[in-house]
User: What shape does this take?
Amino acid sequence: MMPGGMGAMMLTGLLLLVALIGVAVYVAVRAAQRPDERATPARDVLRDRLACGDITPEEYYERDSVLRDGEASGRRR
Assistant: This one.
């Protein structure tokens, strides 16, 4: 095999390794997200109401805080 071909194979292998590491880091970060950072139906409705102007930002943050506290303790309100 020619020296140039060997270099191209090594570069391809290195690029594949970097891509695999990137995918592993992405999956690890997504898995490590706290449950209160993930979307829930109630929080989606709350976000929609804020976007439509039904509630103020202050009301949004107050109600979001209540939802996060309930999720953290495992209680349903």
